[in-house]
Design a protein that fits this description.
CATH architecture: Alpha-Beta Barrel
Distance between the termini: 25 Å
CATH class: Alpha Beta
Shape: globular
Low-confidence stretches: none
Strand content: 15-25%
Strand order of the largest sheet: 1-2-3-4-5-6-7-8
Order of helices and strands: EHEHEHEHEHHEHEHEHH
Helix content: 40-55%
Structural class: alpha/beta
Number of domains: 1
Largest sheet: 8 strands, parallel, barrel
Amino acid sequence: MSYSKPPCIIVALDFAETKKALHFVEQLSPTVCKLKVGNELFTRGGPELVRHLVNLKFDVFLDLKFYDIPNTVAQACLAAADLGVWMVNVHALGGIRMMVAAREALQAYGVNSPLLIAVTALTSYHENEWRTLGFKRNINESVLHLAELAQQAELDGVVCSAQEASVLRRCLGPSFCLVTPGIRLAEDARDDQQRVCTPEMALAAGSDYLVMGRSITRARDPMALLRQLNEVIIRV
C-alpha cells in the first residue's frame, strides 16, 4: 500500500486524562501533524476518543501493539479499521502467521484500509536488557530480522529506532515505511528512552514518520514548534 507522507511528525498523546489530551489537541492542526493514541490514553478514552480525533480530520496512529494468536489480532485490526484510523500496529514477535492474518483481514477495507506496521524492538531497550530476554542476536540484528519478517508478511512497514533506520532503509528498500519513536530535540532529556535521535538525524537515516511526545506536548507553543520542525524537515 502506498502512503501519503506529509506531515511526517506524529505527536504522541501521552496524557493520563482524556480531557487534557483533547485540550492539547485543540491547539493543533491536521495540516502540521498526525496523532498517536497509545495504550494509556486508549484505555481511558476508548474508541470514542479515537473517533473524535478522526472526526477532527487528524490522521490517527492507533499504537496498541497487538500481540496474540492470529485470529484475535486479525479481529483487533478490523476493530481498529472500523474506527477510521490511519495506521495500526502489531508486534513482529507474534510471527509471520499473525502478521499475515492481520494484513488479510484488512484487505476487506480496500483503499480505505489503515497502514499496517509491526513493532520491532522498543526504543526503551538498551543492549544489556535486550540480551537478558534471551535473544541471541543483538538489538540491531534482531530489528533487521523482525523487519524482514514484516516485509515477508507484506506489511507496510515497521516501528524501529532511528538508529536502525539507515540499515533497514538500505536492506528493505525505499517503499517500506519506517516509523521512528524516541525522537528528541537536542536539548531534551532522554526520559525513559534509550535509543534516541534528533529529527534531523532520523530523517537523514531514512525515517518516514517521526513520533514525538514530550518535546511537543510540553512546549510553550506546540504549533509554533511544529511549524519550525516542519520547516527543518523540508530542508533535510
